[in-house]
Design a protein that fits this description.
Mean pLDDT: 93
Distance between the termini: 27 Å
CATH topology: Arc Repressor Mutant, subunit A
Strand order of the largest sheet: 1-2
CATH superfamily: Winged helix-like DNA-binding domain superfamily/Winged helix DNA-binding domain
Radius of gyration: 13 Å
InterPro entries: ATL_DNA_repair, MethylDNA_cys_MeTrfase_DNA-bd, MethylDNA_cys_MeTrfase_DNAb, WH-like_DNA-bd_sf
Pfam family, one: DNA_binding_1
Shape: globular
GO biological process, one term: methylation
Keywords: DNA damage, Methyltransferase, Transferase
CATH architecture: Orthogonal Bundle
Structural class: mainly alpha
Protein name: Cysteine methyltransferase
Number of helices: 5
Order of helices and strands: HEHHEHEEH
Number of strands: 4
Low-confidence stretches: none
Number of domains: 1
Length: 104
């Protein structure tokens, strides 16, 4: 397994701060951090994301990051009261801008 690098640490730290019921898209995370891009954030989540609330990181259209984990995502989203539109997150209501993250 790859070793955790400073960028990965920042991504995971931010994901841990996303409030229950809110989400960020891969690109939102990269933009907030001011580095990397959606693919780099996706790589971090694929390798190290299991220990953070990974279901709060979604595609920009609100779909689950890992389609094979859709059931698990839906269970977490419903439990947390995340706004949904069918089987995807309602990004207008649930997208988090990171303002209360006390980060960086």
């Amino acid at each position: 397994m790859e070793s955790l690098n400073p960028f990965a640490e920042r991504v995971l730290d931010l994901v841990e701060r996303i409030p229950p019921g809110k989400v960020m898209a891969y690109g939102d995370i990269a933009e907030y951090l001011g580095e990397g891009g959606p693919r780099q954030v996706g790589r971090v989540m694929a390798v190290w994301g299991g220990g953070v609330p990974w279901w709060r990181v979604v595609h920009a259209d609100g779909t689950a990051a890992a389609p094979d984990h859709l059931r698990e995502c839906l269970a977490h989203w419903r439990e947390e009261g995340t706004a949904l539109r069918g089987e995807r997150v309602d990004m207008r209501q649930a997208r988090w801008d990171g303002r209360s993250a006390d980060f960086q």
